[in-house]
Amino acid sequence: MAGISYSVLPSVGAHAQTATTAPAKHTTTQKAAVKKKAAAKKTVQATPAAPVQASASPARQAAIVQAQNDAPPAAAPSGSENIVVTGTLFRDPNTHSSSPITHLTRQDMQQRGLKTATDVVQQLSSNGAGNLTNAWSAGGGFAAGGSAPSLRGLSTDSTLVLMDGQRNSYYPLADDGVRNFVDTNWIPQSIIEAVDVQQDGGSATYGADAVAGVVNYITRKEIKGFEGNAEGGLSQRGDSGHQRLYATFGHGDLHSDGYNFYINGEYQQDDPLYYRQLQSPYNNGDLTSLGGINGNTNALSPDGSINSTFFGATPASVVRPVTPGATKGTGPYSLLNQSAGCSSVGQMVSGSLVSAPGGATQTCMQNSQQYAQVAPDQRRIEGTAHFTANVTDRSQLVAMFNWSQTRTITTGTPSAIGVYTQDRLATSSLTLLPVTINGALNPNNPYAAQGEEAQILGRFDTIPTTTQTTQNYRGSVRYSGWEPSKWGSDWGYDANFVGMNSLLDQTYTGIPTINGINNAINNGTYNFVDQSQNSRSVLNSIFPVNTIHARSQEYSGEATATKGLFKLPGGMVKLAIGGNIRWESVNDPSANPIDYSDLGAQYTSAINPVSAQGSRWVEAGFYEVNIPVVKMLNIDTSGRYDNYSEGFHHFSPKVGAQFKPFKELTLRGTFSKGFRVPSFAETGGTTVGYTGWTVNNAAWQASHGNNAYSQGTSIGLQNVGNPNLRPETSTNISAGPIFKPTSWMTLDFEYWYIKKNHYITGDTLAASSVGNQWLACGNSCLPAGVTVTPNPADPQYPNAQPSPGIISAQYVNARSLMTDGFDFGIEVHHRLPGIFHDVMWYSKGQGTYVRRFNQVNADGTVYRFAGTLGPYSAVSASGTPRWRANWSNTLTWKNLAVTPTVYYTSGYKTVADDSGASALNANNTTYSHSCAGTLSGSYNNAAPASQCKVKGFWDVDMTVNYRVNKRWSVYANIYNLLGFRAPLDYATYGGYLYNSSWTQKGVVLRSFQFGVNVSL
Questions:
Q1: What is the spatial distance between Cα 763 and Cα 200, in angstroms, rounded to a whole number?
Q2: Per-residue pLDDT tens for 238-294?
Q3: How large is the C-alpha radius of gyration of the chain?
Q4: Helix, strand, coil % over all residues of the chain, rounded to 5
Q5: Sign (positive or negative) of CA dihedral 826, 830, 832, 833
Q6: Measured CA angle at 843 (ends 837, 847), to 5 deg
Q7: Which residues pair with 880 in a beta bridge?
Q8: 842-873 tens-digit pLDDT
Q9: How far apart are CA 136 and CA 995, in angstroms?
Q10: Nearest residue to 49 (alpha-carbon basis) of 279, 239, 223
Q11: pLDDT at position 98, please?
Q12: Is pLDDT of 31 > 50?
């Protein structure tokens, strides 16, 4: 059965499945027999713990059971079963669908070593630009602690994530402060039976947010007895520790008892990983071996001088005297604590410095990657209670309650002493160490005896830490069944409700306010000479703890009725109708608001003032009609009307067709319309993100001595909510063949096309262009509605023009965003020939090629992103690789199963149309695919500036399962088996020298996990 996916059977073919049981709904001619049987039997489960598959041989099922330690198969389902079918309103495993659906079973996940709900979707070939990974949490992401897929590269807000076909609440923090998404980290993996990924538009069935597709996690219906797992792991270096435990106990048999109840608990801890723990070149800033320069803080140039570009603050503070009446120091710097030297920081260096003439400056060279994180400290705890009961012979009740807690800890670089508030309106950069404190000489000022103030340059030694603890409470109930009818086929019905609350506590420590710093300097309360001597009360006065409480909610009720109307030559024409009403809300207050009566009370830019608040009601009505015209041709049409209390409304139709001229070939296609309403942040929130930009003003840089201040490594982009935004609307097309040349092989090919109109963006203005325009002539040069807030003055050159700090603009509707490409798939299940006759081979592969990814802006300019680092600002420079693919092969022999899985992501050019570093083509249209627009070295100034293309990345993972006996099994996972290194990327800013979206395993290198399963 092409393209449909359900929880009764695992599929060998993601796009071709066959049911072995009678339909859940009965035709009139079947009713008498069914009614007689109903009195003598009880209904059975729909999703057994170890599903049986029609197209899988008995040897395959036995091997899977042995290798994976699954529970035994159950009896065939009856009419009262609760069946989850993705992509359709019909709750019938025999339903045909024309949509391309990837179906991953519990066995698939175990064989590939996919341990979390997040891992499952991140490895999909269709998961593209804008995906949110846990690694990005450590890189400064807005939604630290959250993770989400981005199907077709249309970002996290265009992929709808469901559990058992029901919605979930949004993560309280938005992706990039703007995009609502469902966090996959909270989902308990050990109760998941299958994951379905619908890879075309789903708005006609599910409503908004399903523009790019749908991810549906299907839970296990029945668990009997005890199941447990213990697992541990680490990398080849001995870091990246990993521990995982889960236990499940279930009671009751749906077939004999009419009910089943199970409880489940999960625990997982993943230790943090820092760049300083990695291999070269990722572990430090010295890139001379790569053709770059030494970018460590205070590195020396080849001529022995201190490179002014990388001259900066370290925890070993330096000072220089300030003559009376001056606003900055003169002459070279010297270490404040001469006796301590650089022992706790790095190597002592001395050399001339452009901004400090008159002698040799003395300072400490420090590893620029000393504090940066590769992966956060993350702990997950989850608990589930699940109940299923056959209420009558024709109906079933399923109820589930989930609780989860995810705690994510990220750390950063200690704050500089001279720094500014997030909004750039107050600073401590020009605050000088006074001569006297309370009438006595200032012990922090070595020049106090000469009556001179001191300019200090340094960092605090307090590590800034962000702890995000998310607690999710989710309850769902579903009642479904069927009733006999005297015409057509039986009535089917389904009524369900889900409620979910996500509570997030975000606690910041080690981040100063400007008032706190200035008071410590002026009052002499802080010991800058020996920072270890400062009391907790003094630290709290500078670094007050900051905690915010964010919350999101989702309550949704839905009812659906289905009916077979009449027969055509191809079968029964079926109708489904239904309605949904839901309420959703987000309350994410700013953690760093501006107090205009006390500007220095604001924290530094380490805390982003992201905010979003809002709530809305949504009512929807929907239908679906399935028309089996003849045996060879099936047509399905559906539609949904959604009405939002904010004033948005939209009708989303969909038509699909399947044509099967002969048994080896099926042709299928879909056409649909969809939509996405603006997020709460897009209509009424505020967010500031930072992106790289390139300074093209040599005179301005020279006025700052070409120091680090003048290099323009990052600039703020402040996007302000726009209540006049229009919803995005979409057109989706998919078409292609499914070819089954033999009974043991399936091949599929799909062309897909998605176009969003009225695409909502805040990034149509390239940061580099705006920044350089402002340097030339201020805000008067900028487009209407766009302003630039300057940074505070350069403390080394306070009289020079400051750099642009924050670009402010509203979200706007661009004209469109369009992407298209091809999907490829292969599935094989076959016994090897000859002497290997006892070895079964199971193979599953998928690949995605992105042909185009174009954004048409309001002014008609076109950004072309496919095969480049774009979208640059919107997706943290993760880019749009044209190719992604994976291929898994499982070989089973007796009690042993071995599965190597190969992953591939193609390379891309280090250019991006939306970066502002673009070339013009012959038609004077922005088109940066020329290497003239390379971003190499633009964000990382130490990297070579000539890189035009980043290489592709290969990864091979290996899983070995061995069943010791009926109750015990052991396994081992080796990730990045061949030790492939991440290709160097000198242009991205999502990771240091590598792209964290695609090549994370290439910096971790080999990692190992070992575990044991028990079933009692």
A1: 26
A2: 999 999 999 999 999 999 999 999 999 999 999 999 999 999 999 999 999 999 999
A3: 30
A4: 10, 45, 45
A5: negative
A6: 160
A7: none
A8: 999 999 999 999 998 888 888 899 999 988 87
A9: 10
A10: 223
A11: 87
A12: no
From residue 268, give the alpha-carbon distance in Å to each of 123, 502, 1005.
20, 19, 21
pLDDT at 750 over 50: yes
Strand 715-720 and strand 804-810: the pairing is parallel
Residues 421-467 have pLDDT tens digits of: 888 788 898 889 999 999 999 999 999 999 999 999 999 999 999 99
Contact 616, 583 (CB under 8 A): yes
**For 651-671, what is the mean pLDDT?**
95
Helix (H) or strand (E) holding 215: strand 213-219
List CB contacts of 497: < 8 A, sequence separation 6 or more: 476, 477, 478, 555, 556, 557, 558
**How crowded is residue 838: how many other Cβ atoms within 10 Å of its Cβ?**
12
Task: Give yes or no for a contact between 596 and 657, defined as CB atoms under 8 angstroms apart.
Answer: no
User: Do 852 and 819 touch, CB atoms closer than 8 A?
Assistant: yes
- Label residue 165 left, alpha or beta by phi (over 0 means left) and psi (-120 to 50 means alpha): left
Q: What is the pLDDT of residue 765?
A: 61
CA dihedral 680, 684, 686, 689 (to 10 degrees): 50
pLDDT band at 92 (very low <50, low <70, confident <90, very high): low
Q: CA–CA separation, 244 vs 266, rounded Å?
A: 8
Residue 827's pLDDT band (cuts 50, 70, 90): very high
Residues 742 and 663: their CA atoms lie apart, in Å, by: 10
Mean pLDDT of the chain: 87
Kindly state the helix (H) or strand (E) to which residue 63 belongs, with its residue range. helix 58-68
Q: Strand 816-831 to strand 395-411: parallel, antiparallel, or no bridges (unpaired)?
A: unpaired
How many CB atoms sit inside 10 A of residue 189's CB? 23
Phi, psi of 962 (to 5 degrees): -140, 125
For residue 353, what are the contacts with CB-CB under 8 A and spacing of at least 6? 305, 306, 308, 311, 332, 333, 361
Residue 39: pLDDT over 80 = no
Find the mean pLDDT for residues 1006-1012.
97
- 682, 696 contact by CB (below 8 A): no
Burial track 550-574 (b if 16+ CB lie within 10 A, e otherwise) = bebbbbbebebbbbbeeeeebbbbb
Burial of 935 (0-12, 13-18, 19+ CB in 10 A): buried
Say how far apart CA 790 and CA 418 lie, in whole Å.
16
Please state, in angstroms and rounded to a whole number, the distance separating the CA atoms of residues 255 and 253: 5
Tokens at 72, concatenated: 């035994």
pLDDT value of position 694: 78
Cα separation, 874 vs 635, whole angstroms = 38
The whole-angstrom separation of Cα 176 and Cα 107 is 35
Question: Residue 117 is encoded by which pair of tokens?
Answer: 């709900």
Residue 683 has φ and ψ, to the nearest 5°, of -100, -25
Residue 709 CB partners (closer than 8 Å, separation 6+)? 794, 796, 797, 803
Q: Which of the listed ranges 745-754, 788-797, 875-884 does the model predict with the highest average pLDDT?
A: 745-754
pLDDT digits (tens, 9 = 90+) for 367-419: 999 999 999 999 999 999 999 999 999 999 999 999 999 999 999 999 999 99
Task: Determine the Cα–Cα distance for residues 890 and 561; give it in Å rounded to an integer.
Answer: 41
Cis, peptide link before residue 281, omega less than 30° from 0: yes
For residue 545, the tally of other CB atoms under 10 A from its CB is: 10
The answer to whether 260 and 388 are in contact (CB under 8 A) is yes
Closest CA to 45 of 13, 98, 15, 84: 84
- Name, in order, each residue with C-beta under 8 angstroms of 159's C-beta and a sequence gap of 6 or more: 148, 149, 150, 151, 181, 209, 210, 212, 213, 214, 215
